[in-house]
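pasting BED-type domain-containing protein for the record, 769 residues
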Amino acid sequence: MEPELEPVALTPQKQDNAWKHCEIYKYGDRLQMRCLYCRKMFKGGGITRVKEHLAGIKGQGVICDQVPEDVRLFLRQCIEGTVRRQRKRRHSTSAEPESLPALPPCEAEPMMMVVQSDVNNGFTSPESTDVVVQEGRTKQRPYRRKKAAFLENGSSSHNNGLIGTDMDNNLVPVAISSVKNIVHPASKDRENAVHMAVGRLLFGIGADFDAVNSANLQPMIDAIASGGYGVSAPTHGDLRGWILKSCVEETTREVEECKAMWKRTGCSVLVEELSSDHNGLKVLNFLVYCPEKTVFLKSVDASEILSCPDKLFELLREVVEEVGSTHVVQVITKSEDHYAAAGKKLMVEYGSLYWVPCAAHCLDNMLDEFGKLGWISETIERARAITRFIYNRSDVLNIMRKFTCGNDIVDPLFSASATCFATLGRIAELKANLQAMVTSPEWNESVHLNEASGLAMTATIDDEAFWKAVAMVNDLVGPLLRVLKIACSEKRPGMGYVYAALYRAKEAIKRDLVNKEDYMVYWRTIDQWWEQQQHVQLYGAGFFLNPKFFYTASEEMRGEMVQFLVDCIERLVPDKDIQDKFGKELNSYKNALGVFGRNLAIRARDTMLPAEWWSTYGESCLNLSRFAIRILSQTCSSSVGCRRNLIPVDQIYQSKNSIEQKRLSDLVFVQYNMRLKQLESESGDETLDPLSHSRMDVLKEWVLRDEACVEENGNSDWKSLESVKRSLVPTMDEIDNLGSGFDDPEIFKVEKEVRDEGYFTNTSEKAFT
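structre below
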């Protein structure tokens, strides 16, 4: 009877990088490997054969045609690095004198030096620093022979096992008493040594701690490891020269590849404005969004442009031409008057695109206005008193994180206003945890228990009136915060969802307040800011073309939305012959005829992204399908998630040399696009410390040091903070609760007669009391 294939787990002993790209099976007494990409089975040849298969080494068997290019390139570099090391070893072996004594065979990795301070602090090296093993034999590093000459006569009584020291470089090799003391290459000590080296580099150059989250860090470490011991670091000239040049060419190719996607799905030109406080510099960053990826095009010094709408229009037109006017669906900027004037001129110049104010900026202004309400502002301040007390005392922070399973009670988002309401939501989620904390023995034994601010924190957490106010704020503003998250979403284009989300937000306010005189106060604020979205046709068309919402909307609601759709068709489809074909296809969609009415398409309305739904089921209505994909593939925000404050855009314009200015411009081009690429691979879990300097722009008011915090008590000692494994608070997809049923005609009827009235009246203060 033939043995069966038995899966084998990957063990720490299998250090070759190719093991990560294959499945391992046991077949009798032998191991077989299967390629993860093309599924080819290897019955012999070991991992080397698999690596050559993945790396595309010709003449060494079948080459994998499905392996990702970055994996193929990396494994090829690993193979080339191995060949170089073998050549070096053969050369050094042939040059080694025969008179050197042989050391006992042992398993060890290439030498690693340890800084003197590490040895003094009890650091244990992960491996021998003087012994290198090659194919069952050992040798000494040639440049260490002079200091190892004493081995000819055995160990000296005064060296205590030390093989030698390097006084010139302040490096200390590690003592070896026997083969048992050699640490396995995969050990924690070895990893810690690598991490210490990375830390010293980042600390020494003043880099942000967020650098360790770079998608390029691990590939760099792997590339260094594959290069072997002695691989040299790039020089200053290398970085400014051929390395930067290669990265610019690589990034330019990636941007060029996006143009094919822009043609199919359309794209949005995003305009970001950055201002410098110390020199008055204003910079405009231009990016292009499509569902596959967002790319950075360039930045421009706009200090003298923003004050002149005509100059701003010329700049916008230049960017539209660079992208391709037939690809651009919308240009998104801030909503200020100079942008509005330039945007209107742009729409006159190009009849097939829209200028749209940033929806995220509009929604953030709504949140800011809501936060100014007296009862909401008071609730926020009481919550801030809790967070300021906790986050300025390390021992209290330890207690809090213990009871919240490592979760923080502050939740930084896009802006200070959004952070306020997101943090109130987080505090409400952790209410039971905080209440358990202030009744725990740990808190009752704390030295801070009887401080005035400690007593105030305990009283607030025990106060049900506070929690009732927090719940009311979340009920009122939480749905608007969801609209903002949808508009800024990096997971899916927001165009097909933002109208439905805003509908739900107004519906929730009406449901909670009931009386029209109460809920209209808040609706007026929403309507006033939303009216700044002068070209809401795209949002209405997105709602109409999203099958998740369209088929559950009332006839009156559909009638409102179809006007927006027709406006978009007439503007975005300039060919009148194609426009005339939309009538029949629209009828098929509205009445769910043909494929649209099949059970598979009906079930997919709630499970597929709307653009994917049209791509899958819309081929019978080809013109409408292509149009729907272009609309539903757009974003609603000019903001992107990468941390722009860490990209030195202003350095470009501080340089007065034209050559260096161009070099810095290319550097920013590479940096920005690398940050954007990293966003694609991030899981979305927030790992940054809320006390990090990079978060102070939105969290300052929540972690600001309170007056009662006294450093002399040792309560601000960061070294005493304990590491707690984080148990993530479960989050729900923002679109899951948008639901079905849009049948309230009052919600999107703008109250024109009150548009010019004040934002709030006394009614707003008592609406939730």
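The two ends are 79 Å apart (CA to CA).
The CA atoms of residues 515 and 767 lie 9 Å apart.
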